[in-house]
Design goal:
Elements (H helix, E strand, L loop, with lengths): L2 H28 L5 E5 L4 E2 L1 H9 L3 E6 L4 H16 L4 E10 L3 H8 L5 H7 L6 H15 L2 E6 L2 H10 L9 H4 L14 H9 L7 H19 L5 E8 L9 H7 L6 E9 L15 E6 L7
Parallel strand pairs: 3-6, 3-7, 4-5, 4-6, 7-8
Antiparallel strand pairs: 1-2, 1-8
Helix pairs in contact: 3-6, 4-5, 7-10, 9-10, 10-11
Length: 297
Amino acid sequence: MTYVNRVLILGMMATFLLLSACSAQRELETRDISPYQLYNGDGKKMTYPEMVTLARSHDIILFGELHNSAIAHWLQHELARDLYLDKRRLLVVGMEMFEADQQQLLDQYLDGTITQSAFEEQARLWTNYDTDYKPIVEFAKEEGIRVVATNIPRRYANMVYHEGIHILDELNAEAKSWMAPLPLEIDLQLPGYVQISEMAHGHGGDHLPQSQAVKDATMAHFILKNRARNTRHLHLNGAYHSDNFEGIYWYLRHYGFEGTILTVTTIETAEVGTFDPDEANRANIILKVNERVPHTY
């Protein structure tokens, strides 16, 4: 190889390395590692203060979470604090994570009648309670905020899954007091319930969407039962319980609630800075969380 050829080859290699370095730098400069981004239902970016302002203008906020999303839980906690600071209304927090037959136990802990250890030993807490829900419960205890256990006891939801909705008719009056009023109207043609059946590949027939519906209806029932004049209700639930204005939202309207309802959903994605048209109108506010943010479990 001649000297000239060696110089040409070295020059080409240097140019290639320089171009590669420039390309890598441009990619780094444009790489978005934001942990989350908020959007309205039309896909327009929102700020957190805009979210708070919108939430303060509604009677009920259904905050749909992914149960293991640290970002969603953090924003729920921050939103609860900022709604509490708006003294025009009293804040009530409802939680899917507590079942209706636990309400007395929850009340006793919040008013100081029983200790934290006694409460946590008896309350059938979710495994991620300490990291994800305890901060809100403790905040509510400190500030005297009512916390409502809105979910149907899981043993009864399991009965519906195995036997169908009519099995609940056999329960006694006390058991029935921990769920939505019976008989329960269920629209199995709602897309969310149809999707649940499809995801289960038909296993369980209508029983699986029925067990989902009785949870949705019960949460809506206890949200409304615990509404009072001059209150605002922040409800924490899995996103699938309120996505696409179905589930809890549908039952709130079915039960005749005419006030304002704001829905929030949570989506994990690799790119929080872009909005997929397929995500439009899944909720009033769409929280997109970077999928690389560590999960709580």
